[in-house]
Structures are given as C-alpha cells and as structure tokens.
Amino acid sequence: MAYPQLVMYEEEAKQISAILDKLVKDSNAKAVFLVDKDGQLISQSGETENFDSTSLASLTAGNIAATGGLAKLIGEKEFSIIFHEGEKDNIHISIVGQRVILVVIFDNRSSLGLVRLRVRKASDELAVIFDKLAEKSTKAASSESPFAEITDEDIDKLFNI
Amino acid sequence: MSFINYSAREINCKIVYYGCGLCGKTTNLQYIYEKTNPESKGKMISLATETERTLFFDFLPLSLGEIKGFKTRFHLYTVPGQIFYDASRKLILKGVDGIVFVVDSQAERMDANIESFENMKENLHEHGYDIEQIPYVIQYNKRDLPSAVPVEEIRRILNPQGVPDFEAIAPKGIGVFETLKAIIKLVLIELKKGAR
Questions:
Q1: Can you list the domains of chain A with their CATH numbers?
Q2: pLDDT tens digits for A45-93?
Q3: Contact A161 B40 (CB under 8 A)
Q4: Chain A residue with minimal CA distance to B181?
C-alpha cells in the first residue's frame, strides 16, 4: 500500500495526551486537537466537549489537503501553518512532522504570538513520538494484531444493529 | 489508510463514493444518514454549492459494533463528480481504504461513467494505489429510469474484474445498504490480510 498504516499504542497515546494538556495550559487555548492527514482524530485536550470533534477532524484534513494542493500549484512544498481569525474564536492549524495536523482553538485570552510559540515547542516533541510510532508500526509483529483472527461471523455481526 | 488505535481500542477506516456528476453519491450518503440510528452516526457534512452540487466533499461518520474488542468507525466521503473538480477529487482519495463506484445507469451517461472510472484509476495511481489491490464495489444506480441500460451490458464495460456489484435506486434506498455492507466487508477482509 502507498502509505504506512498509523497505529497508536497506549504508551505513546499517554505521552501525546500529556503534551496536548500542557499545550492547552501554556498557550491559554480553549482546545487542542491532533488529527491525522486522512481526517481521523488522534487525540484532544481542553474544552473539547463544546466541539464536534469528528467533523472538526474531517474538515481540518480537507482544509490541509486543499491548502497543500494550492501550495503545489505555486511551487511550494506545503504551507505548514494556516490561521483562521474569527470574531471571538480563532483556529491555528499546523502540520507536525509532515504527518499529522495540530489544531489549536483560542480566543482573546491568548494571542497568535503565544500560540505560535507554544505550538512550535509541542510540535517538536510530537514529531519525535510520531517518528517512534512509525518505526514501531513497521516493526510490529503480525502475530500481535487482533485482526488476523477476524471471522466472517464477526463481520456479519456488525450489521445486526 | 486505516488507523488502528490500541489505546482507545478503535479501528478507523475511510470509504469513498466515486462516480460521475449527478450519479447519486450524495444521495447514497443521505439515505444512510436518514436510516441509521442516532447513536451510530455523527453529523453529516456537505460542502456543496448553492445549487446543491458537491463542491469539495460530503462526509458521514458511522460507528458500527465491535470486532475483537475494537470499536469500528467508518468515515464515508463522496467526491465532487463534475469533471472540472478533479483536483479536489484527487485529494479526497488520499488514504482511502475502500471505494464504492456509483454508476448512473442511463444510456446517455455511459460515456461519463467510463470517463469517471478511468479518472478514478488515474487518481488512485497518482496516490500509489492500484485498482487491482484496493477493495472496491460497484453500484448500478438509477435502475428505475426508463433509459437504464441492462445491467449485463454495464457490467461488461465497467466490471470485467467481477467485483461485487449491486443494483440500486438510491433515493428509495434500494441497494444502498447492500452496497455499504459489501464494501465494509471487503475493507475488513483487507485489514485481516494486512494483519497476517
């Protein structure tokens, strides 16, 4: 397949969670989301209950994909930061390690400068974890996978709801 | 590409509905949205023009039951069918796990179907996928329209590989869930293969 599969393990999930919690606090943000480029939510922190995180993840990925298309059109590799300014709330979107998307939602309790600064630090830390995850995923022994044992019955059961 | 989260015990997969303009991709998603239990579905998003033509994509998140203790989540997307939106179409195919190719059965749309199918192959190729390897099913939609071409004939042109195919009348829901089940099944079988 063209892309390596993203796999998340307990240990890394915890580390990512801790980084996001810290980012919310340090940047005075309302909420922070980590999304993969295909639009799947990886992790979140802050006042996330006020947002439809599934929709947010999919639209962010669409946004990044469209912006990436624009970048290529004008001969750039990618635009690594997108910022949307609203009346009250703002969204800061950035690409981490060319793999995942970090979304920070903030209002006037914070500022773009502060968010940028904190995002940069968090991104470096996150990039290290995702490098490790990529390595781990490729190495993962197939025998560990629970999906090798899927039966037709399991699949049929999904549709009985 | 499917995302396996051992921490949250979830599998996430991406399914894309592809096909020519006005073949019924959005209608498929709307019907699925209407008929699914509120607890199994998220909000449906349509990025459409004022005349309700898909501009970028439609998105519908579905959660089905568990497999081996993992929650299964499927993200359904449609592409914009109109020819000139090819750049957007290409973006949406990125990371796809399974495709539903929706065919407009009307005789006058056969050229558009073939063009769309070729376009899909090209776009997949650009992402490094091969149509022979990616799970896909075909839906012959609009079977109730007077100019519908016999299924055998469409099959000969668009499904020489003999992938699972279904007749449908999407606004009435006929064939919609059969198609969805088939592609989900293929995607999970692929996941199983990948795990070996």
A1: 10-158 (3.30.450.30)
A2: 999 999 999 999 999 999 999 999 999 999 999 999 999 999 999 999 9
A3: yes
A4: A159
